[in-house]
Write a structure and sequence with these properties.
Strand content: 15-25%
Radius of gyration: 24 Å
Helix content: 25-40%
Bound molecules: 1-deoxynojirimycin
Shape: globular
Largest sheet: 8 strands, parallel
Distance between the termini: 28 Å
Length: 584
Amino acid sequence: MRTRVLSLLLATPLLGCSPKASPTPAPSAAPAVDRKWWKEAVVYQIYPRSFQDSDGDGIGDLKGMLSRLDYVKSLGVDAVWLNPVYASPNQDNGYDISDYRKIMKEFGTMEDFDRVLQGFHDRHIKVLMDLVLNHCSDQHEWFVQARQSRTNPYYDYFHWWPAEKGKPPARWSHFDENADAWAFNPKTNSYYLHYFAKGQPDLNWENPKVRRELYDMIRFWLDKGVDGFRLDAIAYISKDTSFPPLPAEFAGQWSKYYANGPHLHEYIQEMSREAFGTHDIATVAEAFVSIEHAMKLVDPDRHELNMAYHFDAIGLGYLPNEYKMPDPRGYDLVEMKRIYTEWDEAFEEKGWGTVYLGNHDQPRMVTRWGSDAAEWRELSSKMLTTFLLSMRATPYYYFGDELGMSNARFERLEDYDDIELKTNYEQVRKKGGDLKRFLEGMKISSRDNSRTPFQWDASPNGGFTTGKPWLKVNPNFPTVNVAVEEKDPGSVLNYFKKLVRLRKDNPVLVYGRYALLDAANPDTYAYTRELDGKRVLVLLNFRAKDAAVKTGLDLARATVIAGNYPEPSRDGSLRPYEAVILGL
Ligand code: NOJ
């Protein structure tokens, strides 16, 4: 009965598709659909520090965000994910939290936050908070206390290695100039663990008191009415506190080792039960894990989380064993297709995926996966948007990508802010490495490329601030900005809005079975989506040259649903960076 009702609900016609579009509907292969708001949502990620400044201090803030809610509404998205807004000394831009129940002073006050939350809700937009539970700031009261003495009640809130046992077993840090995840604390004569920066001590989840404090804090935000959480580095929370040497199978892959803690799933189940309770929220893990492992996180029968985002594809195109150094040959599209297809298959029966091509930890989508050369920036941005909004997974779309914002490509170390870049620069310098080559690579891969201020209009600093922006604005702001693009019906922005609408109006794009076509084609990505007799074909050319797809399908009667060229191709021969969605 339930499935029949859902079929009726899902029988909305495709935009631009005539009733003749599918004369012989193929038998539906789609499994029964378990509808959830967070599966149907398009999530728009906002990096608050760079969205809109209201007081001229050069840093985005909540009052600024409040003034831009109608813009977010105009995009048609269903939810926003806000990067951390909690009190923080900002060693890692908010991922080092000094008070989980306060708002970062640069961003405003709790009253401002409440207004923003209400403002989004008034516009029927849900709000996902960033939840940083693996570590806090060394300025957090817990750590300030803990580091005083071994008998302090907060000492066990963190992981320590007593110096009398000698040097601790090697653990690598993401953001340390010596790549060392242990820092010595003279007062306690012991080392504390920090998988990230020295100012981000890892919380000791093995201590039930810590878990209780965190669950309590989560309930505080749920009581305010937030609609879900993106769980930062969540797979790292459980540790073998005997700190054995890293097992051989994880050689060079310490991130994967960190994600395999002995009590991870037990703790997440406990958090789900005790903190999330029965709230109808979205929870998404940042999870550096294998498919099998991700499945455990999101299998609804296990009551852990709803979604996870993986790193398998995002690492393509970099040289092995070097920090984010771009491979001059670019990335392997066949491999990228294989990865996305494998992750789709994993969630075919249960569980649910995510899809993203950019976020605050990645460079700009168009620079990395398309081309930001003047002639291709718009076309390839639209092509990538077509990909994100036509996959069977919840799209996490990063702010500014809807404008086709591209990498800032800073020349000098001083132009960067990011702790990841700076500590890795130091590592290269200490080893006597090639710093010029390092900075060249960073023009492509650094996180600051995507953290530059949002480009609202052609006024100074792109309308982001009247002061000096905390990070330089991309010099292309006079032409790449909201004001220009809102007026241009053919803009990247208006294409994004159209595709969001299309996804929302066509459940086949959300729930339809995905099947990869022409897998070995090195230039194109093609797939069908199918639900209840409706079938669409997505054709994407990832290259700056013509390319043809072997679909093996009769396209004679195919209808155009969307495309990034004025006259979209109907026969599988694609122009540079062409994207087309056809109804079959
Ligand atoms: C992942 C976050 O996305 C990143 O920005 C941050 O630096 C680390 N986790 C540490 O919290």
